[in-house]
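Hey, quick one: can you model this chain's 3D structure?
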Amino acid sequence: MSAKGISMHKIKDVLRLHFETKLSQHQIAASLQLSSGVINKYLALSRSANIQWPLPDEMDEEKLRSLLRPHAKKISHFYEPDYASIHQELKRKGVTLLLLWQEYEETHKKNAYRYAQFCAKYRDWLQRQKPSMRQVHRAGEKLFIDYCGPTIDIIDPVTGEVCAAQIFVAVFGASNYTYVEATWDQTLPNWIASHVRAFQFFGGVSALLVPDNLRSAVTKACRYEPKINATYADLAAHYGTAVLPAC
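Sure thing. Here's the predicted structure for all 247 residues.
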């Protein structure tokens, strides 16, 4: 993919999610509904052009395009593996580096590292990591969203009819500031409307929306490339945020 064929708006989204929220390539691909290969290409182009984040105020789309174009044919033709995902996969029973390399090589073929180099680069990445069990959330970064636990019974005071209500919950990761409301079901209209009321309650929107994989948010649950509901994606775009499905 040449710089000419790349959406500058998409590149800005990739850079924002990479530098501000520190997401992996697979997570960025899932959020923006692009392939991991495209994300790898965007980041490689920006590194080759020495583009820093945040972008200067005067950096419009045409200037960004002109910076990237000379580097489009100079970047490495190798597809860089997502070492964080490899590290997680190795924790599963029966998974080996050889198996993960075979899957990687089958997917990327001529753009794949050989097995020895694949292992060496993973070990280099592993040595640079600082072991930690603590998950750190930055203020305003992630809003975790789901329907919680069992339903609650709502009794009609006139007829005595009992109906079950769903409990929508949205929680900020850093502060645990929480919004809760009851709706009759988990259908898409209620899911979207609950988000809107939550944003009004909070007085703003987080950088990322992290829903569980319920069908109103994610139409295809997948560890690497989940498919986000189109209406939900439109909601995120309207409010200037992005959707990152929970793993």
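One thing worth noting: Residues 3-128 form one domain.
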